[in-house]
Amino acid sequence: MSSPVVPFRQFVLKVHSRCDLACDHCYVYEHADQSWLRRPKVMSPETVGAVVDRIREHAIRHRLDGVNVVLHGGEPLLAGPERLDAICAALRAGMPEGCDLDLRIHTNGVRLDERFLDVFARHRVTVGVSIDGDRAANDRHRRFAGGRSSYDQVVRAVGLLRDRPALFGGLLCTVDVANDPIRVYEALLALRPPRVDFLLPHATWDTPPSRPSPTAYADWLTAVHDRWEADGRPMGVRLFESLIRAAFGMSSLTEAIGLDASALVVVETDGTYEQVDSLKVAYEDAPATGYDVFAHSLDEVAGHPGVRARQTGIEGLCDTCRGCPVVEACGGGLYPHRHRSGNGFDNPSVYCADLFKLITHVRGRTAVTTHAMPVSVLDALAGGYGGAAEIAHLSRSQDSYRRMLVTRVAGRDGSRTTELLTRLDAGHREALDAVLAHPYVRAWAVACLRGEADRAYLGNVVAAAALRAGLPVKMPVLLVGGAAHLPTVGTLVDASGLPESLPVLVAEPGGPPRLDGAETVWHPARRLVSGDMSVLLEDGDPHRDCHEWPAAPRLDEDEAALWQVRFDEAWRLIQRDYPAYVPALRTALTTLTPLSRVVPDDLSSTARDAFGAVAAALPGDPATLALLILHEFQHVKLGAILDLLDLYDPSDRRLFYAPWRDDPRPLEGLLQGTYAHLAVTDFWRLRRHAVPDPGHRHFARWRAETARAVETLAGSGALTPLGERFVERMRQTMAGWLAEPVPGADLEAAARAAGEHAAAHPQA
Fold it and tell me: How far is residue 206's CA from residue 204's CA, in Å, rounded to a whole number?
């Protein structure tokens, strides 16, 4: 039986097949495949229309929520602004509802002017420009046919893009080891791009790259990497970011490395489909498929053997690659770079030694590699439990994430807030870490980087850390809803009606903070305590409203006292009856967030970007609160695991029946719910001995439904190998529980309830 089609998500349209430069390293004109000579210069309106129809058809068939289209060449600007305007308009109009179009163009920049930029602004087109560094580096290859330099025209084009930053996608730089790596890096950085792609020159074992030393390309790139790290990563670098993501088990950002299935197809000016066009370096017609947009669907192209060959992951690699310790980061390198006459692509990359050295160097220099998850940790967590050591592993990875996010928000602007953040990190790291560990600091930082939160809140974060360190404070903070919240420390409520701006917070060591020139009321942070267990009662943070249900406003003293009573009772119950969960909860449950009083008292929530926090409406009894905590902490754990590892194919958009929901769930939602219901099942497995009615019935219901969901996940065909291992460990846990005896009447009642739910909520 053939494997399912991997839908295409990236489409490269060769809108013009000629170029106004004569770069001697160009894979289109200077390598084995010369099929460009047989194609029309420009893509016709009829071909554009057929392309749009095919993409739309493909997006509808596979329920794609987004596609990426790159206008390419040759040099696409040779098509002219009017034709590009028509192409972009056709693409925008042709996308089906619910499918976002990420539209880009890659250009050498020499013809870029305001006419083109107006077209790109009208159609939201992001522009990438090719430039190889400073003047000497760029002119080594990127010249006009007569030998004239293109450098000044390209720099002028980049200047135009800087004036219109919404259009500026970044720079593409082909590595030449004859150029000085630091001079190239500094020249690119001076152009202030949002991102740079460093590209290895296309080569094969038959036509290897110029190589003055065995690892010349790795040495060149590691010099750039180390300077980039020392500078605080002032711009995105796709290659380095992909290697860092690989250390977390995350997907690559580039086809040049990693094991992700290729989801790219090229359409030439005559409408013929091609595989990745860098295959042109291998041999004549290497990218050809024999298909075209007029007669063939994209699903037919996706079934082409050459396309399938780039989607087989580790199984499609040669023996040398499969046995390599860095294969999951490298992925065998770019597919065309493996070619050798005689055995095709069954080889390591011609850059194998370079990739190995670069990957191991980056792993050694970045802190995130300490969070690559050992199999023993994964297995312990996948079984539904995990002790203090396993949860501490997740906590350390979250510490790194939060630091990275806050550092990106802080930037390098030299403000007093950023300077104080740096000083705290150097001299009072424990106090700073305590604030950064607050769950809603990450929620704010993520929202801030999305443009959905105010960067000025960084002042509140830094002020909180300074107060915890016992330092005097005088700095601007952000008012939200008339209050300045200081994470983990407390909330200053402005009673004098200052405008929602940036008042100055003032505090002396040992004294309460105040807002300069305002009448303020100080509410210190409150904690819930049971024995030696303590969590923050979070009812003041403005970023706590990131859960599925609305957060409660600040509690009055009676309400807070009731939370204290209920938490103490619930924690004592957990310690007594559910000791297997206690070490993990002690390690990482830091915060309880009250939900709105209008929310039913059996509802609770977690947020993916708020590790350590559980939100709940206050239940009427301690057992329900204990259940909510155990249930939601499963989501806390799994969210952190998914930050580190890819357990499933994120492109799978199918919906699945979930026995605990009224709506069908996407794959991640089903995985989350199933993992959480391991704890729900376990709760009733043990609770039924103290409360037989309804304990036996609940245990019977949830063990059957959770086991059913495990099998749905296992049979989905969308799990990664690690995901399959994870689900198998869940299945093993369930197998023992399924063997436990339950009274027949309770089994029948549970089966009736399950059947009624399934009948009332059929899968979409």
Answer: 5
- Please calculate the CA angle 73-77-80 and round it to the nearest 5 degrees: 125
Q: 83-92, 239-248, 447-456 — which one is most confidently predicted on average?
A: 83-92
Same domain, 107 and 168: yes
Q: Do 311 and 178 belong together in one domain?
A: yes
Q: What is the dihedral of CA 526, 530, 533, 537, to 10 degrees?
A: -20
Q: Are 104 and 68 in contact (CB under 8 A)?
A: yes
Q: Which two tokens stand for residue 391?
A: 């949860």
322: Cβ contacts below 8 Å, ≥ 6 apart = 314
Q: Write out pLDDT tens, residues 292-337.
A: 999 999 999 988 887 787 777 777 888 888 888 788 788 888 888 8
Which residues on adjacent β-strands are paired with residue 648?
719
Q: What does 27-66 look like in DSSP terms, one character per residue? A: TTTSSS--GGGGS-SB--HHHHHHHHHHHHHHHHHTT-SE
What is the rounded CA–CA span in Å between residue 713 and residue 602?
27
- 441 neighbors 461 (Cβ within 8 angstroms): yes
Question: Using CA atoms, how far apart are residues 92 and 97, in angstroms rounded to an integer?
Answer: 11
**Cα–Cα distance measured from residue 410 to residue 430, given in angstroms and rounded to the nearest whole number:** 19
Query: What is the domain range of residue 430?
Result: 411-516
Size of the chain in residues: 764
Residue 146 makes CB contacts below 8 A (sequence gap 6+) with none
Task: Report the first-to-last Cα separation within the chain, whole angstroms.
Answer: 26
Domain count, the chain: 3
pTM as predicted: 0.56
Q: Is residue 4 included in any domain, yes or no?
A: no
CATH number at residue 352: 3.20.20.70
Written as six digits, the tokens of 241 are 């970011």
